[in-house]
Design goal:
Layout lengths: L2 H10 L3 E5 L5 H8 L4 E9 L7 E8 L3 E6 L9 H6 L3 E4 L2 H11 L7 E3 H9 L6 H8 L20 H12 L1 H14 L3 H16 L2 H7 L6 H17 L9 H10 L5 H9 L2 H11 L1
Parallel strand pairs: 1-4, 2-5, 5-6
Antiparallel strand pairs: 2-3, 3-4
Helix pairs in contact: 4-9, 5-8, 11-12, 12-13, 13-14
């Protein structure tokens, strides 16, 4: 790429970035998004010690603006549902992750989506690629991954975090438009839309559904104990593995009726009180 092309690229990809930290800016967001038929979306969140994810930043891009909505300081985002549902397409990278966050944190379920990761897989015939790799496929940009695992619940956000969050949506619309042309010429565009919708709906479903599906050939007793654990995890908002791990589920069912079942279940759960509750539920 020559110098003139590089300068044009830098100018063409420059977008205004707005960090939205106050609910009073709701009208500003609405007015800027209402006429955008295409929107790019990403989320930054923490999901380490809770059953439900903790949304930190909701990133939204249009053709010329980027909005970083600080969810921790924003009292209500209900107004976003009608805006998002009216768009032609919402563009994501790895859509299942983000629809999980949108549906669990904001109670917004969307499926009119286009996933650039799925599209790139259809185009190349290869494996899933991370966002930075896909961006590099189309633009002379090497994105930093340094903030991927940073503390997104800390405030104030660092300049590096803000830049990272903005870059995560900066190229979505541009990549979509380039991929769309290629997919149409290959007669694969509708296939990508169908695959993207399927992934989005997997994210929209209740969290226990995909987890339960991983239990191969589970019988009714195993499903009952699994759901008891899920409901307790939901009530306490803790990871279900904090109650007992998946690998211990079958073992608990093997030993709980034995003469020393209480001790054996206690050893597996690390809690005598919890062991008593499990046995009471199973009897």
């Amino acid at each position: 790429m020559n110098l003139i092309e590089k300068i044009y690229f830098k100018l063409s990809k420059k977008k205004e970035i707005f960090l939205i930290e106050n609910s009073e800016d709701k009208e500003f967001i609405k007015s800027n998004l209402k006429d955008s038929n295409l929107i790019g979306i990403d989320t930054e969140f923490d999901w380490r010690r809770t059953y439900f994810p903790n949304l930190s930043i909701l990133q939204i891009s249009t053709r010329n603006k980027i909005f970083l909505i600080d969810y921790l300081n924003f009292s209500n985002l209900d107004f976003l549902e009608q805006i998002l549902l009216k768009k032609d397409f919402l563009i994501f990278h790895s859509v299942r992750s983000d629809t999980t966050i949108l549906s669990k944190c904001l109670q917004i379920e969307v499926d009119q989506v286009f996933d650039i990761q799925i599209a790139e897989r259809f185009l190349t015939g290869g494996n899933n690629q991370n966002y930075a790799a896909i961006v590099e496929n189309y633009f002379p940009v090497k994105l930093s991954k340094s903030e991927t695992n940073s503390d997104w619940l800390q405030r104030p956000l660092s300049k590096k975090q803000i830049s990272y969050a903005a870059n995560d949506v900066r190229f979505l619309i541009d990549i979509f438009e380039k991929q769309k042309k290629k997919l149409i010429s290959m007669n694969k565009y509708n296939d990508v839309l169908s695959a993207s919708k399927k992934e989005a709906n997997l994210g929209n479903q209740d969290l226990h559904v995909s987890r339960l599906a991983k239990l191969s050939n589970a019988n009714e007793k195993e499903k009952k104990l699994f759901m008891w654990r899920e409901n307790l995890a939901i009530k306490k908002n803790i990871p279900s593995s904090y109650i007992f791990k998946d690998k211990h589920l079958k073992e608990i069912l093997k030993v709980y009726k034995s003469s020393d079942g209480l001790n054996k279940v206690t050893n597996l759960t690390r809690s005598r009180t919890l062991a008593k509750d499990i046995i009471e539920n199973l009897n």
